[in-house]
Amino acid sequence: MALRLLLAGLLSISLVLPLHAQVESREAIALRNQILEVQHELDQLRQQMQAGGGNNPGSALGGNYGQAAPPGNAASGDLVATLLQEVSSLQDQIRTLRGQVDDLTNKTDTQLADLGKKIDDLQFQFQIMQGKGSGPVAFPAPSSLTRPTQPAAPTAPTAPTATAPPPPEVLLHQGEMALARSDYAAALSAAETVLKIDPRSPRAYDAQFLAARALFGERQFTRAALAYDDAYGRAPAGSLAQDSLLGLARSLVAINQKPAACGALSKLHQQFRTLRSDIAPAATSLAHQAGCV
Question: What's the whole-model pTM score?
Answer without folding.
Answer: 0.52
